[in-house]
Write a structure and sequence with these properties.
Distance between the termini: 11 Å
Shape: globular
Structural class: alpha+beta
Helix content: 25-40%
Number of strands: 16
Length: 308
């Protein structure tokens, strides 16, 4: 039975089986210093690079795509566009120039060569990039898509940028320094007592029958599950206190690294059904959750774990 929460050195709050009273997450100022010194990195320049990639490669193609600009990767729901490819190339060049010696793990690069993922296990700083998170929305002219960038070192996410260019939203998080949306501090808060929990779950178009069975445990009193859109924007909704939790059954680092740090720095919690922090390197027990607070994370994971 999942009974308590603890805070790990990774900075993620995770669920763990224990009879102890769950401690509160450590205040940002009390957390350990990151393993990579960010003092020499111009974080504002990173934000500018993200904005520039979107301005140059994504927004000119929004609602302007031709049929030949869209390709299926692994089926009719898994799409890639010329904007995805060019934005990732743009970001790969600009981000590695800002941090010499760093590597990039981008969604499209991994699709072309899965060995790119090996960088997540190495000693070099790694930029984790999803050039267009919510490609299906982008293709259909829906503004609910985002560019996601996270900086990680030795498995630890240190900073992240979640940019929704069509919505004018830029969320930035730095480990131990909080999260901001368009310069304003973010706090996820907690659901109102007795309120029905709004939970974004893995979309049924991307789940197996077994995953659907596990996620169906959330179809119970006091919880209102719905299929997710852009994963990055769902994390932003949690950090803003607009939804209460997620329940995701896939672990691609580019979908989750930026958002998990954003939620954590806004005061939220996360964990897997095995009672461990989510690892960006992969190999996680799934599903996992991110939530506005530890009590909500405990409730969601308790239901999911009961299905196993």
């Amino acid at each position: 039975m999942i009974e308590a929460l603890r805070t790990h050195d990774s900075g993620e709050t995770a669920i763990t089986p224990t009879d102890a009273t769950p401690p509160a997450a450590a205040p940002a100022a009390d957390r350990e210093e990151p393993s990579l010194d960010l003092s020499a990195l111009d974080l504002a320049a990173v934000e500018a690079a993200v904005r520039r990639a979107a301005a140059d490669e994504i927004m000119p193609r929004f609602r302007q795509l031709a049929a030949e600009d869209i390709v299926e990767k692994n089926g009719p729901h898994d799409l890639v566009t010329i904007a995805d490819r060019l934005a990732e190339e743009h970001l790969t060049a600009s981000l590695t120039a800002l941090l010499p010696g760093s590597l990039v793990v981008g969604e499209e690069a991994v699709h072309a060569d899965s060995s790119v993922l090996d960088a997540l296990h190495g000693d070099a700083p790694v930029w984790i990039v999803d050039p267009v998170d919510g490609t299906r929305q982008f293709v259909h002219g829906d503004p609910g898509f985002a560019t996601l960038v996270a900086l990680a070192h030795r498995g630890e996410v240190l900073a992240s940028w979640t940019y929704a260019p069509a919505l004018g939203l830029m969320a930035v998080a730095r480990r131990g320094a909080g999260a901001r949306l368009n310069g304003v501090p973010l706090r996820a808060g907690s659901p109102a007592s007795g309120a029905v929990l709004d939970v974004a779950t893995s979309h049924y178009d991307f789940t197996t029958d077994e995953q659907k069975r596990v996620l169906a445990t959330l179809e119970t009193g006091g919880i209102a599950p719905r299929p997710c859109g852009s994963a990055g924007l769902e994390y932003l909704h949690i950090a803003r206190g607009e939804i209460d939790a997620t329940a995701f059954s896939w672990e691609n680092a580019w979908d989750h690294a930026a958002g998990l740090l954003l939620v954590h720095e806004a005061g939220g919690a996360s964990g897997t059904v095995a009672g461990q922090p989510f690892r960006i390197e992969g190999g996680n027990a799934l599903p996992f959750t991110a939530a506005r607070d530890t009590a909500t994370a405990r409730r969601i994971l308790g239901l999911l774990a009961a299905a196993n």
